[in-house]
Write a structure and sequence with these properties.
There is one protein chain. With about 450 residues, the chain is of the alpha+beta class. The chain contains 11 helices and 17 strands. About 35% of the residues lie in helices and about 25% in strands. The strands form 4 sheets. The protein has a 6-stranded antiparallel sheet with strand order 2-1-17-16-15-14, sandwiched between helices. A 5-stranded mixed sheet has the order 12-5-4-3-13, covered by helices on one side. The longest helix is centred in the N-terminal third of the chain and has 34 residues.
Length: about 450
């Protein structure tokens, strides 16, 4: 009987302990749950954000506090969010002016070379033709001299089979016509810009529209089914073609230096940095401009046109405010080698705002329902940069709230299947809630 009483006592004691710690655990769990802010409750409630590899930071620059940090130090493919790093580089290195040509005068001969300025004869910058105007008034014999360190025409890790699409244009020291060919068929009439290349476009009728472009040439074969056709095609820009196009436009002879390429100690000529250049890069996500801006940054630092010089320089300088190491290989974000964290992007955005101010930020970044790549999404209180590659979609920028406060955010979604539109809708709902409640 004593043994039975002891066993019964131990059993009852165990049950009491079980209920005691169980209730304590429940109470503790409720306390943990109650510690979550309404913002965190809103975010974690989303089942969609759990389907992809998602990161999210909302940062208050006034208090220097993160209101939420979800995978903030994890690495993501940034896509065109890499242009935020390019923008900050331009602000810090180029500042208020850019070099548009370098030259050396020897007697009655002017040797000149490029600095990477993407505006020359670019149809998007017809009011910024400083290089063309400068050359047109020179009385000397003009000779173009190729640089030994011309930039690679493609960035590291770019897709080899995208060479015929408008978003992957070649990069070089002396861009012309935006390094693009504009092909248009209207009422069965073919027009080409630059017009001098029209003779290289083969035009035939077939049942289906198609376009074939060689990788290292501009002899494009266009097949039309009789319907109107309008397309931007990358131009393969050799030095000889550039000289030919510039001579035709200026209506004056430009010769090509036939000796070995070398970097001469010339004088660079500068002009005011047009905001329109950075606005197009950020609002329309122009990859070509982003790469050429980074090339100009490299020239400014070293007289070299190697984009890696600017990248290495900035990564070293940014160690002071970006705590983790990031991988950055191109100016546009076309490369999947890039690896950024949401925290690093937020820190860049904070620095841009500190240097340039809210008015400039609201002019340069795309605005929800108003301009750029978010003209059909989000609310007008969002100023941000999108970043999209297949299976990846990001949005990072600034949100102005009803309270009058401005917060900085970075949303990054990688490795999902299907369309990015559902992520866009979920982020829109989240940002609208933040706008109303913060």
């Amino acid at each position: 009987m004593d043994l039975i009483r002891k066993i019964s006592g131990l059993f009852l004691f165990s049950i009491c302990l079980f209920f005691f710690f169980g209730l304590s655990s429940c109470k503790s769990g409720k306390n943990i749950a109650s510690r979550k802010s309404p913002l965190e409750h809103k975010f974690y409630k989303s089942s969609l954000f759990k389907e992809a590899f998602t990161g999210f930071i909302l940062y208050d620059p006034a208090s220097k506090k993160e209101l939420i940090n979800y995978n903030g130090l994890k690495y993501f493919t940034p896509a065109s969010n890499a242009k935020i790093a390019t923008l900050l580089s331009a602000i810090e290195i180029l500042q208020d002016s850019i070099p548009f040509i370098q030259y050396q005068k020897v007697g009655d001969t002017l040797y000149f070379s490029g600095t990477g300025d993407p505006c020359n004869l670019n149809p998007y910058f017809q009011d910024n033709q400083h290089l063309l105007n400068w050359l047109s008034f020179r009385p000397e014999t003009l000779i173009y001299k190729s640089m030994r360190n011309n930039p690679d025409r493609y960035g590291s890790g770019w897709a080899w089979d995208d060479n015929k699409y408008y978003y992957q244009l070649e990069n070089n020291a002396f861009p012309v016509f935006g390094n693009q060919i504009h092909i248009n068929v209207l009422d069965s009439t073919l027009s080409v810009l630059p017009e001098i290349l029209k003779a290289e476009i083969g035009f035939e009728y077939r049942d289906k529209q198609d376009l074939i472009k060689p990788e290292y040439a501009n002899n494009i074969q266009l097949f039309s089914n009789g319907r109107d056709f309008d397309r931007i095609v990358p131009m393969h820009v050799s030095d000889s073609l550039m000289v030919r196009l510039m001579s035709d436009t200026l209506k004056k002879s430009i010769n090509f230096f036939t000796g070995s390429a070398s970097n001469f100690l010339g004088t660079s000529v500068r002009r005011t940095m047009p905001d329109s250049l950075l606005i197009r890069m950020m609002q329309e996500s122009d990859n070509f401009i982003a790469e050429q801006v980074l090339i100009m940054c490299s020239f400014e630092l070293s007289d070299s046109l190697n984009r890696n010089i600017a990248i290495d320089n900035r990564l070293t300088a940014w160690n002071a405010f970006i705590p983790e190491k990031i991988r950055w290989v191109d100016g546009s974000g076309l490369s999947r080698y890039n690896l950024f964290t949401p925290v690093s992007i937020v820190k860049m955005l904070e620095r841009i705002r500190t240097i340039k101010g809210d008015a400039w930020v609201s002019e340069v970044f795309a605005q929800g329902r108003v301009s750029g790549t978010i003209r059909s999404a989000y609310g007008p209180y969002v100023y941000a940069k999108t970043g999209t590659l297949s299976n990846n979609h990001n949005l990072s920028g600034y949100i102005q709230c009803q309270s009058g406060k401005t917060f900085i955010f970075s949303f990054m979604h990688n490795h999902f299947m299907g369309s990015a539109s559902k992520y866009q809708m979920e982020m829109s709902s989240m940002l609208e809630w933040i706008h109303k409640h913060y």
